[in-house]
Write a structure and sequence with these properties.
Shape of chain C: globular
Strand order of the largest sheet of chain C: 1-2
Strand content of chain C: under 5%
Chains: A mainly alpha (337), B alpha/beta (355), C mainly alpha (345)
Distance between the termini of chain A: 38 Å
Order of helices and strands of chain C: HHHHHHEEHHHHHHH
Mean pLDDT of chain A: 88
Radius of gyration of chain A: 21 Å
Number of helices of chain A: 14
Number of domains of chain C: 1
Radius of gyration of chain C: 20 Å
CATH class of chain C: Mainly Alpha
Number of strands of chain A: 0
Number of domains of chain A: 1
CATH architecture of chain A: Orthogonal Bundle
Number of strands of chain C: 2
Shape of chain A: globular
CATH architecture of chain C: Orthogonal Bundle
Number of helices of chain C: 13
Strand content of chain A: under 5%
Mean pLDDT of chain C: 84
Distance between the termini of chain C: 35 Å
Helix content of chain C: over 70%
Largest interface: A-B, 75 and 52 residues
CATH topology of chain C: ABC transporter involved in vitamin B12 uptake, BtuC
Largest sheet of chain C: 2 strands, antiparallel
Low-confidence stretches of chain A: none
Oligomer: heterotrimer
């Protein structure tokens, strides 16, 4: 059985069709929320606010892109936020030692990729569970960033760079960072949904043994996905450092939970094999815009914590309940017939 | 098949990072001169504007210290018929404060009273807010002077350092080993006070027999401060006193000492709130400690913000304004307004205070 | 996460009759004990005060709450689950019981019961979402981590319960000891023993191992999965709730951030203690030793004058080493089993 027929079957399966509805639902919910909030929350619907939302969602989006691929293969990477912290701290150290920023930025991405490779090696090389490995590297990488920078901050980043990250294109209100973000999202979308790599990702998640028989190099695929995840986290470290003009060991602390939350909220199954990027993108926008609207509406952050948690559970609970109800209905129909 | 494609996927990342390159930019290339002066002139005889919208943004909202400051600021703002909002993140991180500043500047708030989590990370957001006409007054913890209009300092740094050392020397009889339990290693305030203490120890003959043996950091986290105290006492068996110039640290250290064999043996002093320390003054763990009144600090911050928004002051050195019942204040160098000397609390007066 | 990563089952604490497996398991506890001994000896060599009464007491105090939570976490992890909400549950219980005490001055026993009840309620919610909602434990408890923390923020806001607001008796209980051993540690120890007996000596306990090593198989032989899962999560939640009361008693000051991020330490203790993250194998004794090891490391670093910033990195490295070691031992045991099998043939 080739990868093509395997994924063709997958695509036809009820589970995937089912998911398409969740995908559509989350996109519809996001659009509806944006429309309603623009009408009801003062200052929400302005171009300037859209710019703030894009800056706020950038780090979540960068990490979520790679996380979507990894979760789709049935694995997880909890170390991403710590990788952001460690690359940011390393950037600070390199900057202090006089290395030019143009060299530091690609090095940060390479460092991220190496940290991802360590995860990949433990998981695919030694066959260890990704949850445990990345909880370990979550602590390890965060710890190492403290070892590098301690509690100090490196803040004297050049204005030419920090200004670009915060700036807009020409006279428009479109933030500069939107272009690379959109490009990256497009690349990942194409890879996941229109290439053999993408099909291999779904196959590896849906049934790794079948995928391996079908000729998908499951281990190698997963290894490179962790490398990619690390590289994205490195890029996110560069963004974070320049956006806040501050390299600190505690940068992006706790962000991994938000990233996992948006990926699951976006309809990616934690068991692997199911999920699509548009849903994840919508979830990223929804969560960030919701946060923004609540702040503008003077609602306390406590409410947001509860909303995030509930949405996360609902994202998995709702399809489960729906299919249970559908199952029960079908059962009754059959009986009446 | 996957390796090539994934390489192809990661290459643009590197390329994107490299694209920004336009010749080596290294540390120290840029010499920025952010200026506080806005060119506006002060009108010392102007009246306080009424109906100002004032927002207080603390380091984090779950902190009783800032609740007190907020109460003080609110009373001043309502007195001026303005609107007051107390808002902020639940975690004390600079990045979450940025989002709040963005929100406040969009709402065209007249005055932001800010206690900063990072001296630099907030600057670009603050600049945008000030560009839109918002007056930014920092209190408790400052940002880079170029990014705000005024800073309301709780106390003069040198005075705190000296007061801490005076109290310590009194309690240990002028000789012995002392150690400092601080907040975080890059906390601006604490580091300045510790530097003053070190200088005094070097130069002042009264303190010739006192030796500062260690500085540890409890990160302003209760449990961490607690175990750092523990570590200090183990590492330095001959320690006579611990100085903790942070409210979280001194409370944690007091709690540890009061339940340990060191109670009464090792002196503890520093900066703490009367409500948190009352118990340890009563049980004899602590003899005397100091702090400013956070409510008064909040009041002064609100008066300063209102004065700046009304054009009474601009932040230039030497300007004066009247802060209600607090009296007259003069703007110092770098746009700093100082509340006054710290208050010392001991068994005789602690019951007069409730914060 | 996937079938590929399913580790070879290494039998249960109750023993499988295979000496190779038993050795592998005992070796783990022994290894932890040796690591502990080496660490303590090295630190004491640098500073003899490390073994002083006060210092040892401090370590037991520090370990007490982690040991307690690790006992509950073990039970959940054995079923292939995880409970990330323990830190938040501890915070909720700590804040609510502390405010209850400061307002009513209720006796300590009542506070302990209230904490247990709050925790059990949270645990029941987790169990229900996981079992009835068929939501994976990682997702469900990540969700409740947020929700429960949000509730603590709602309840506490910017206020804080100070030590001076709490009854004297409660604080004495939190800081007191008998024969040098803190009450808190005795409670944790008693809980650990009880959980160990439950896991090894009761039908329900062994069902948990069965569920963890082969869920389908366990169901086929008649294990009532729903009831057992609920038991596991309620137990884990209740112990986190109890931990909250102990936290309040020990620290006296309780604000909305109590227990923030604690889940990581507890999971680390359990993993370092040799409980397989994908269920079916491990003992609560191992988890307890893991918790003790982490606490000792924490206390040894400042004494050894090692930069405190290394602490988290060391914990991370330990987790990686522990799971790698487990894997190695597991592979060897499996190979040994296979060899033995062929002899019988």
């Amino acid at each position: 059985m080739s990868t093509e027929t395997l994924t063709a079957r997958l695509r036809d399966s009820a589970a995937v069709r089912h998911l398409a509805t969740w995908d559509a639902a989350i996109i519809a919910a996001t659009i509806a929320f944006l429309v309603v909030a623009a009408q009801t929350v003062e200052h929400f619907g302005t171009a300037r606010n859209a710019g703030y939302i894009i800056l706020d969602l950038a780090p979540i989006l960068l990490l979520a892109l790679a996380m979507t691929l990894i979760v789709t293969t049935g694995e997880i990477d909890l170390s991403v936020a710590s990788t952001v912290g460690l690359t940011s701290a390393a950037m600070g150290v390199m900057w202090n030692s006089g290395i030019p920023l143009e060299t530091i930025m690609p090095l940060a991405v390479v460092l991220g990729a190496l940290l991802g490779a360590v995860n990949g090696l433990f998981i695919t090389g030694f066959g260890l569970p990704s949850l445990a490995v990345t909880i370990g590297t979550l602590a390890l990488y965060r710890g190492l960033s403290y070892v590098l920078l301690g509690d100090t901050a490196v803040a004297d980043w050049p204005r030419a760079f920090t200004g670009w990250v915060l700036g807009t294109i020409g006279e428009t209100q479109v933030p500069n960072v939107l272009i690379p973000l959109a490009a990256l999202a497009a690349v990942v979308a194409v890879v996941l949904h229109a290439t053999t790599v993408g099909r291999a990702v779904y196959a590896a998640g849906a049934n790794p043994i079948a995928a391996a028989y079908a000729g998908v190099p499951v281990r190698r695929l997963k290894f490179w996905l962790y490398v990619a995840s690390g590289a994205m986290a490195g890029l996110c470290g560069v963004f974070w450092t320049l956006r806040y003009s501050s390299a600190r060991a505690d940068n992006a602390f706790g962000l991994e939970l938000t990233v996992v939350a948006v990926v699951l909220l976006g309809g990616v199954s934690i068991f692997g094999g199911k999920g699509a990027l548009p849903g994840v993108l919508a979830a990223v926008v929804l969560l960030t815009a919701l946060q923004n609207a609540l702040r503008l509406a003077h609602v306390s952050t406590e409410a947001l914590t509860v909303v995030t948690g509930s949405l996360l559970i609902a994202a998995v609970l709702a399809p489960n309940t729906a299919s249970a109800i559908r199952g029960a209905l079908r059962h009754r129909q059959r009986r009446t017939v | 098949m996957s390796r090539k494609r994934i390489l192809r996927l990661t290459t643009p990342l590197l390329a994107a990072a490299l694209l920004a390159a336009c010749g080596g930019t290294t540390q120290g290339d840029e010499d920025e001169g952010g200026g506080a002066g806005t060119g506006a002139t002060a009108d010392p005889d102007a009246d306080f504007q009424t109906g100002l919208s004032v927002a207080m943004l603390p380091k984090s909202v779950n902190n009783p210290y800032f609740e007190s400051s907020s109460a003080g600021a609110e009373s001043v703002v309502t007195g001026l018929e303005g609107t007051f909002e107390y808002t902020g993140p639940s975690d004390a991180s600079a990045s979450s404060q940025v989002s709040y500043i963005d929100t406040l500047s969009q709402q065209a708030t007249d005055v932001i009273l800010l206690s900063a989590n990072d001296p630099n990370a907030l600057c670009s957001s603050l600049e945008q807010a000030r560009g839109a006409g918002t007056v930014v007054v920092t209190f408790d913890s400052d940002v880079d002077p170029g990014c705000r209009d005024l800073f309301v300092s709780q106390v003069d740094g040198a005075e705190v350092g000296r007061a801490l050392l005076e109290m310590t020397a009194e309690q240990i009889g002028g000789s012995g080993q002392i150690a400092v339990l601080s907040a975080t290693a890059n906390a601006t305030n604490q580091n300045a006070w510790i530097a003053v203490m070190e200088e005094e120890l070097e130069s002042n003959p009264d303190y010739a027999d006192i030796e500062l043996v260690d500085v540890v950091y409890g990160d302003d986290e209760d449990e961490k401060s607690f175990s750092e105290t523990q570590g200090l006492l183990q590492a330095h068996p001959d320690l006579s006193a611990i100085v903790s110039p942070t409210t979280v640290g001194i409370a944690a250290a007091a709690r540890y000492l009061s339940g340990s064999q060191y109670q009464g043996e090792v002196a503890l002093t520093g900066l703490g709130t009367p409500n948190q320390m009352r118990e340890y003054i009563e049980d004899g763990t602590v003899t005397e400690f100091a702090l400013w009144d956070p409510t008064a600090l909040g009041e002064l911050a609100a008066w300063t913000g209102a004065a700046a928004a009304s054009g009474i002051i601009t932040g230039a050195e030497g300007e004066t304004f009247t802060a209600g019942e607090l009296g007259e204040y003069t703007v110092g160098a770098d746009g700093v307004v100082t509340l006054g000397p710290p208050t010392r609390f001991n068994a005789d007066n602690i019951d007069d205070y409730d914060f | 996460m996937t079938a590929l990563l399913k580790r070879p089952s290494r039998g249960t604490a109750a023993g499988t009759g295979s000496t190779a497996l038993d050795l592998a398991l005992r070796f783990r506890a022994l290894g932890l004990l040796i690591a502990l001994a080496v660490l303590v000896a090295a630190t004491a060599a640098v500073n003899p005060r490390f073994l002083g009464l006060q210092s040892v007491q401090d370590m037991l105090f520090a370990a007490a709450i982690t040991v307690l939570l690790a006992s509950g976490m073990t039970v959940v992890v054995l079923t292939r689950g995880i409970d990330l909400s323990v830190g938040s549950v501890l915070g909720l219980s700590a804040y609510l019981t502390a405010s209850l005490l400061s307002e009513t001055g209720a006796p300590v026993v009542l506070a302990l019961l209230a904490g247990l009840a709050i925790g059990a309620a949270c645990g029941a919610a987790n169990g229900a979402i996981i079992h009835f909602g068929k939501v994976p434990p990682l997702v469900a408890t990540l969700g409740t981590l947020y929700i429960v923390r949000g509730l603590v923020y709602f309840a506490a806001g910017g206020s804080r319960v100070n030590a001076s607001d709490l009854p004297r008796g409660f604080l004495d209980f939190g800081n007191g000891s008998v024969l040098g051993v803190p009450y808190l540690f005795l409670i944790s120890l008693a809980v650990l023993v009880a959980v160990a007996v439950f896991l090894a000596g009761t039908r329900a306990g062994r069902d948990l191992y069965a569920l963890g090593s082969n869920p389908e198989g366990a169901r086929l032989v008649g294990v009532r999965a729903g009831r057992r899962l609920m038991t596991a999560y309620v137990l884990c939640g209740a112990l986190a709730g109890l931990g909250g009361v102990l936290h309040a008693a020990r620290f006296g000051t309780v604000d909305a951030s109590a227990g923030h991020g604690l889940e990581l330490t507890v999971v680390a203790a359990v993993v370092v203690g040799g409980v397989a993250i994908f269920g079916g194998s491990g003992t609560v004794l191992g988890a307890g030793l893991g918790a003790l090891l982490l606490a000792v490391i924490n206390n040894a670093l400042p004494v050894l004058r090692i930069d405190q910033f290394w602490q988290q990195a060391i914990v991370g490295a330990l987790i990686l080493a522990a799971i790698a070691l487990d894997r190695l031992v597991g592979l060897r045991a499996a190979r040994a089993l296979r060899r033995k099998g062929s002899h019988v043939d």
